[in-house]
Amino acid sequence: MRDRLESIAERLARASVVDRLVISLAALVTAVLIGGVLVFVSGAFASCRTGLEMGGATFCYNPMQVYYELFLGALGHPLEGGWTLTNYSLATTLQRTTLLIFSGLSVAVAFRAGLLNIGTQGQLVVGGLATAVTVVYAAAVVPSGFIGTVVLIPLGVLAGALAGGVYGAVPGALKAYADANEVITTIMLNIIAVGITSTLLSWQFQDPNSPNPQTAPVPEYAEIPTVPVVGFGGRMDFSLLALAFAVALMIGIAWLFARTSFGYELRTSGIQPGAAAYGGVDEKRMTVASMTLSGALGGIGGAFWVLMVHGRWIENVPSLGFDGIAVSVLAGNSPIGVGAAAFLFGIFDSGGNAIGTATDVPPELVGILTGLIILFVAMPEFFRMLGRRYVTVDSASPARTDGGDAGANDGGDADA
Amino acid sequence: MPMRNSVHRARTALEQRPLAAAVGGVAAFLLVLWATPASWQTSTLRFAVPIALAAIGGIFAEKSGVINIGIEGLLIVSAFSAIVVVNRLGDGGATAGLPNLWWGMLIGVLVSVLFALLFAIVCLEFEADQIIAGLAVWLISLGLAPFASRILFDSPNTANITRFENVTVPVLSEIPFVGYLLFDTEPQVYLMLAGAVAGWYLLSRTTFGRWVVASGENPKALDTAGVDVRKVRYAAVLLSGVFAGLGGAGFGLGTLGTFAGTGDTVINGRGFIAIATYLLANYHPIGALLGSFLFAGLNSMQNGLQAAGYAIPTELIRTLPHMTVIVVLVFVGRTRLPDAAGDHYESGED
């Protein structure tokens, strides 16, 4: 019974890989096109000295220039002179890629279990604070230097994973035992996380030497070390070691899905909760377990944000967790796909800065593009219809963007 | 399936108790609210506007079988565009005989309906996953409002506009206890009260309301009866755009006067609170109105405590409504969703 189920699931997955890849690419291209039109049109409402005169209006923004800055600015303008591989822009892109792999994996794990964890952001915020506080306090008793590095970094990451895991387990338990819709609870928990952490900060953990809301800095030897010689050293806030860890974790999660019974049960719960229950999976425990794992991954993202980027927790946490949703959706919730999607959104983040400095277009454009990409990935039927009109393909089985029936939040009903 | 029906019946019976508890809780809270200063009560009504109207809109969409989680986005775009319209037409003036504030209201609702239409097309024509598409609507709005604001105002926050003024109904405003609250207030509060009654009437007393319910519970039967399920769902989603638009624009023009676009924007999850509100109210529009008083009351209570200078951790107290949402969801988690909610319906299927 189980073998048969597994082979069906495997075949479904393989058949839809190409389908999903095409849909993700099509969604990306469509979002970029619509974003370009938006940029061009909104240029008519902006004020500028030079612009494209057309039909009595002045269009201030050139979408081509905007996208040139977005995509190539994020790499440090490789087509212009004096380019080196280890430039600051690329370092920022890869730094974001690293962090987005964590948050993307966090969302993907929950998605594959049929749960929509919108709460990665909150889990990352809570995990990051736990990391910073743990490392700052532990540094007082741990010897400095190499030993400090070897002890404090794993300790900090563990603290982040634990705190994030607990914060993820809460909506998991609420879903499992009280049927509380995880989409709403996690969104609320994101807002609550901000309240809790800033209260804790002002109550106990505020850096007394700083007017800004932030914790005391972790010692320099507790920051993620950079690789000597290869590059990206100094003040670039990026470490290839961290990226390597993220990629390793990505492969680990892929392995977990493909090769372990836990991963199998998790995926089956996402695709066919009824079949999973029939096969002996404890649905409630699986819900809590997958949300805990998801939260822990978000917490690890927070840990690396603290230990790699700022060396401390600061109150103004970037929207890495929300972007993780986009990463996972675009990746079709595949762990390996998360790597590629994280790189794309890393480009968006870093390129957003380039847009801000090189053009007058508001950097919020990146947020709109993110939303558009999610929207188009959510409507694969749109592209299939387009496809059917212009090319004849024998349509593969429909690929769900969420790997499960997330819409029916009173789970049992749909399969009772 | 008889098995399924009996399961349903058993669950419905189970649900009635927590629901009664929830209703009791809200009633008790309203009583407590009664004892609070008049300024708290007024601000409760004003803060209830976006929650109540968005919740009533959400009821129509979800009852018809389309879960519109994007109402947060609808609140954002309607509040933002209403304020922009007033600012561009001229603060305090009138255009073509209509005060600019009402132009703002009109355009705000229109923009919200356009976004709802986009969402409806995506869900009903292209069979998108409703939750993900709703999230996308939220995220697009979350980017679009500050994007446009930076172009128009050079800042993620808009300029200030002069807000709606109180409209006093003669005689009625003299009624003891409720008169000053319900009949000497701002236009958006009247809209909310009227909207709740209209929503209730439309949903439970008209043919259209019955179609909406059937479209969510048993689309096949509705289809067999010769009613176009797709059209009913379009109408319901657009209606959710109208209600959310009234809520967002009314909130922006009557309570805020400016739109702050940083972070989660000034809407700050009120659309999601609205969803919890209608679940708490078990899809009853009047219940949603009362439920919105719970969340808005917490909001104004927190503002009142802060103004009174109590040394409370403000950041944590600010999240009181959001914590309450979670508590509410735990109690009403077993609210039964319409049977076909979240599913695409294809006429002539199987």
UniProtKB/TrEMBL annotation, chain A:
Signal peptide coordinates: none
Cross-referenced InterPro entries: ABC_transp_permease
Chief location category: membrane
Keywords per UniProt: Cell membrane, Membrane, Transmembrane, Transmembrane helix
GO MF assignments: transmembrane transporter activity
Subcellular location: Cell membrane
Positions of transmembrane segments: 21-46, 98-118, 124-142, 149-170, 182-203, 238-258, 288-308, 320-345, 365-383
Keyword Secreted: no
Keyword Transmembrane recorded: yes
Membrane topology qualifier: Multi-pass membrane protein
Any one Gene Ontology cellular component term annotated for this protein: plasma membrane
PANTHER family linked to this entry: ABC TRANSPORTER, PERMEASE PROTEIN, GUANOSINE ABC TRANSPORTER PERMEASE PROTEIN NUPP
The protein's name: ABC transporter integral membrane protein
Native species: Natrinema pallidum DSM 3751
TrEMBL record, chain B:
One GO CC annotation: plasma membrane
Gene Ontology MF terms: transmembrane transporter activity
Transmembrane segment boundaries: 45-61, 73-90, 102-124, 131-153, 189-213, 234-260, 272-296
Protein location: Cell membrane
Membrane topology of the entry: Multi-pass membrane protein
CDD domains: TM_PBP1_transp_TpRbsC_like (cd06580)
Assigned keywords, A-Z: Cell membrane, Membrane, Transmembrane, Transmembrane helix
Pfam families cross-referenced by the UniProt entry: BPD_transp_2
UniProt keyword Transmembrane helix present: yes
Stored InterPro entries: ABC_transp_permease
PANTHER family found in the cross-reference section: GUANOSINE ABC TRANSPORTER PERMEASE PROTEIN NUPQ, SUGAR ABC TRANSPORTER INTEGRAL MEMBRANE PROTEIN-RELATED
Name of the featured protein: ABC transporter integral membrane protein
